[in-house]
Amino acid sequence: MVNFFKFNMAKLSGKVACQLAKHGPGSGGTYPGHVFTKIGGQESIPKLASDLKLGSVLITGTNGKTTTTTLLIKLMSKDIQIRKSYENNILNSIVTALLNQKGDLGIFEYGIRDMTYGIPDTVQKLINPVGVVYTTISQEHTQVAGVKNPFESYYKAKKLLSEGMERGAIVTNSDDPRTALIGLDKSKDVDINYYGIETDVIEDIGAETIECPKCGKELNYSHFFLNHRGIYSCECGFKRPEPNVKLVNAEFNSDSWILDIEGDLYNYFAKKNVKFNLKLNVPPFGFHNIYNTLASITAYATFTPKVENIESTVKDVFNNLDMSFIPPGRFEVVDIGGKFVGLGQGDNGDALKINAMFMKQFIDAPFEFIYTTPDEKEEEIFEDHYKVIKSMNPDHVIVVPGRKSIEKAEEYCNIIKQDFPDADFYPLSYDEMDVRIERLNEMARNSDYKYVIMTGCGEEQAMWEEIKKKMINR
Ligand SMILES: [Zn+2]
Q1: Which end of the chain is more exposed for a tag (fewer CB within 10 A), N or C?
Q2: Are 342 and 302 contained in the same domain?
Q3: Is there a domain that residue 157 lies in?
Q4: Residue 194 shares a structural domain with residue 264
Q5: How far apart are CA 277 and CA 102, in angstroms?
């Protein structure tokens, strides 16, 4: 039982902290949550979370969390007032949003690197979500800042966020074997709504099979959509579940994409099945955003209490979407007077590949790759990156340290030189960020090539967003 005096003190102090705190992007920071938890203890959080009449939806995954959360917020805000938190994806930012916002439903991004950094089962117990939304689970993030975490523990951490759920619904990607298995394993306890692609117009080239998350044998794929996401089955009987919300056709034009989406799912609050058909006209936002679109629509249709609005709200949001929904620092292609520069964060293999696939749509002439490397002890990230660079086969490569170690970056460059002998190395220092931003901007701007892709490791906001600003403003 929570001590009410302690709870009220904590809530009051947290609210005062809200007045004092400088609010960060999208979420209002984490300080008020920190104050609340310090005074009231973690045991006060469930009472605070129960302020939400409808409950909370948590969004997690390796890539796509912020974009999916942003899109879901756009959709749900049309129907009801919500409390929200994204980008700062830790527990105290959720607590901060609970304290300083109003609304009946919470939509919160929650990132889990592994068991040491995250406390997913504790978060599940404290917040008691009615929904957990999975984007995708890739192996890429298993080595962070030199600490190598076995993929099993990373996967388990993602699973733990929903494992204790006794009510609500899980929204998960059926094309990703790992997130699909989480859904299948919980289907006896809660409702599961899957989303996926059901058309051959999207096909990854050069994707590789992965181990069955259930039995460990190699999966058989009949189609790859994007890396390990595809149509798969295993000897053990595990296979891709049928998606409830699916992309059934797509038409890709240079200035707009047309997406046909069919839905048939269970709405948690209306307690009934709903069907919808959508033809959306969206900006050419990249293949990975097709999954983010499907995830956000599925989550929205699962949790909106206004099921009669589904078709009109989704059309309203997506037909009026511009590229600004892409989070700061993320990859986009900029036209600087007839030269096309694709630039942005790609600090794991999955992210870099998505950037490469996006850029490939534009390229019809020789192009240059400006690659910002990972750090020491991040050889696995380099290996994943390098596979993508080789498959793109650029006409010229420039290598720049993306993190602190210049020596390690040069070592990576020497490996690249074995396949691309005329690759150039620019030892830009991480500490002089302004110089580095200016030089990277100049490099792309003064490139001899019409197409330049500049991606790899680097801080999203501090580096990529600043380079983009410089490039667009001039
Ligand atoms: Zn299996």
Answers
A1: N
A2: no
A3: yes
A4: yes
A5: 32
- In angstroms, what is the span from residue 14 Cα to ligand 1's centroid? 48
Residue 95 structural domain: 44-325
Q: Which two tokens stand for residue 389?
A: 């660079």
Question: Which amino acid, residue 409?
Answer: A
287 and 346 part of one domain: no
Is 207 in the same domain as 73?
yes
Report the domain count for the chain. 2
- The pLDDT tens digits of the residues spanning 228-271 come to 999 999 999 999 999 999 999 999 887 889 999 999 999 999 99
What is the residue-wise DSSP string for 197-210? E--TT---SS----
311 and 293 fall within a common domain: yes
Tell me the CA–centroid distance for residue 219 and ligand 1, in Å: 7
How much is the pTM? 0.81
Give burial (CB, 10 Å; 0-12/13-18/19+) of 312.
exposed
Distance 136 CA to ligand 1 centre (A): 19
> If you measure from the C-alpha of residue 212 to the centroid of ligand 1, how many angstroms do you get, rounded to a whole number?
5
Ligand 1 centroid distance, CA of 214 (Å): 5
